[in-house]
Structures are given as structure tokens and as C-alpha cells.
Design brief:
Blueprint lengths: L13 H10 L2 E4 L5 H19 L6 E2 L4 E5 L8 H5 L2 H11 L4 E10 L16 H4 L6 E7 L10 E3 L22 H7 L1 E2 L7 E4 L5 E3 L10 E7 L12 E3 H6 L2 H4 L5 E3 L20
Parallel strand pairs: 11-12
Antiparallel strand pairs: 1-8, 2-3, 3-4, 4-10, 5-8, 5-10, 6-7, 6-9
Length: 279
């Protein structure tokens, strides 16, 4: 189930973590895992992609030559390493509270020829966020490769997580008139294998054009505060023996079905506005 020993507890700066997510909307821990760990993660991602792309509903397009696939925890050897990592847990507890729930495990792969995505957020902003300035969900990302500029890196517009977005298409896609502002403040990220980042999924972001001949797989883990309501878009499941083997203090934070036998996931979280790429 796990491939490395859980790192010892550390006194991560909760105030700094909260400040970063409330201002820029993103922060990261460099070198959270060894590069070899990330290489095993890539093997699992590529195996899962080959299975998913072969069946209807297994992979969803997120733009030309770009796909998103959700998987079950048992398809990723390092899943427990991530959700039990002290930094992961500290971030979730600090921002979402002690009863946070992990509900999404998936990956995004932009292949050679992937185009710029339109600027977007992953779902409409709730009143708790745009009125109360309270974050109710987080997205963690772990790259499976050492990212270089030619690969089409992830780009984020810091500080946009609290914009209401009432004039956005589907409350997710800002109008093109906003692009000059977003382009001017955009930050391009170049993570390495073993790094882990976390962001508000409401911070406006996009994948950029992949000008290389290489794919850029990125793992995604979605976490909610109680009542955030995104579980309707996901269907994480575990067999009973796998679930029982997870330490209780980690198991209590997993929001997924316990089943007799795993079935392939039919993707629910389709974002239609990303299918064609940047307008």
C-alpha cells in the first residue's frame, strides 16, 4: 500500500500556509518525496491512462491532446504516502478544519500538441468564499516529471480565488476581456518530481501549450471541508481489506465507498468549456 515511511511530524508554519492560500491562492512543499517515488507514481498514472482511454467514459478531454482521468486509491501505490504526509495533513487541517475529507484522486495529462486552456476555475465559487472569504476546498498537485517551459506548464493568476465570477461563463470562465489582466499577473510553475503543491481550485488558472514531444502527467487530489458538496462529482472507492489496512486517523478523512470489488470509474466531472481549448 505504501512505498516509503511516513515522514516524522514537523512544525510546519500554519500561519504561513494560511497566508499563502488566502493571498496568492497557492503554496508548495519542495522535495516532499524522493524523485524515485514520483517515477513510480508516473508508472501507475500511465498504466491507469492506458486502461481508461480504451473504454467509454474512462477519460475526459480537457482540451486538444489533454485528458483527465479519475482513479481509485488502490491504483496508486503512493496514495497513503500522500494523504498521511504531515504537510498534507497540516494544510488540510489549517484551511479546511479537522474534519476535512479527501474525495478526488485523478490525473491530468497534456500530451505533445496540447493547446492553451482558457482561463478558468474548477467550479463556481460558493457564497462562503466570495462573501465570507472562507476556502471550503483545496486541490493538491504532484508532478510526475521535472517540468520545463516547453512542456506547457501550469499557469495561475494569484489572488483571484475570492472573485465572485458572476459575469463568468458558467461562473467558471472569465470573459476574454479579462485575459489581459490575468496574463499580466500570471505565474508559470515549474515543479520537480517529488514536489507537492496546493491551491484553491477557485484561483483562476490554465494549462499552457505543450511545445515539447513529452507528456506532462500531474496527479490531482481534491479535498473538501464538511458540506462543500463536491462529492457528487466524484466516485472514489476502496475494497474492504484495503480500507481496513489504512490507519484509522487517515481513514477517517477518506470520503469514498467501500465495495466488494472495484469497478472502473465513469468520469463525472466533465468541464465542457475546456474541451476545445482556448477560444
Amino acid at each position: 500500500m505504501t512505498t516509503i515511511s511516513t515522514p516524522p511530524e514537523q512544525d510546519y508554519d500554519r500561519e504561513a500556509i494560511e497566508h499563502a492560500l488566502m493571498t496568492a491562492g497557492i503554496t508548495a512543499l519542495r522535495g516532499a518525496f524522493p524523485p524515485e517515488w514520483a517515477d513510480r507514481m508516473r508508472e501507475d498514472i500511465e498504466a491507469a491512462f492506458e486502461e481508461a482511454i480504451s473504454r467509454e467514459g474512462g477519460a475526459v478531454g480537457r482540451g486538444p491532446n489533454r485528458y483527465y482521468v479519475e482513479i481509485h486509491p488502490q491504483q496508486l501505490r503512493g496514495f497513503l504516502d500522500i494523504v498521511s504526509h504531515p504537510w498534507f495533513r497540516t494544510v488540510c487541517e489549517t484551511v479546511l478544519g479537522p474534519d476535512y475529507k479527501v474525495l478526488e484522486l485523478g490525473f491530468d495529462i497534456p500530451f505533445a500538441g496540447a493547446k492553451n486552456q482558457p482561463w478558468h476555475r474548477d467550479f463556481p465559487s460558493p457564497p462562503e468564499t466570495y462573501e465570507g472569504h472562507r476556502l471550503t476546498s483545496l486541490a493538491f498537485n504532484l508532478t510526475a516529471v521535472d517540468t520545463i517551459p516547453e512542456m506547457g506548464p501550469f499557469e495561475i493568476a494569484p489572488g483571484t480565488q475570492f472573485e465572485q465570477g458572476e459575469d463568468f461563463d458558467h461562473q467558471m470562465f472569465p470573459p476574454r476581456s479579462e485575459y489581459p489582466r490575468l496574463d499580466a499577473i500570471a505565474e508559470r510553475k515549474l515543479p520537480k518530481r517529488g514536489d507537492i503543491s496546493v491551491r484553491s481550485a477557485l484561483t483562476l488558472h490554465r494549462g499552457t501549450a505543450n511545445h515539447s514531444e513529452l507528456s506532462r502527467p500531474v496527479l490531482v487530489i481534491g479535498v473538501d471541508a464538511p458540506g462543500a458538496g463536491h462529492d457528487a462529482f466524484h466516485d472514489m472507492a476502496m475494497t474492504q481489506d484495503y480500507f481496513d489496512a489504512i490507519p484509522e486517523d487517515v481513514r477517517n478523512h477518506l470520503l469514498g465507498r467501500v465495495v466488494d470489488e472495484l469497478e472502473p470509474i465513469v468520469q463525472k466531472h466533465t468541464i465542457e468549456g475546456l474541451v476545445m481549448g482556448e477560444p
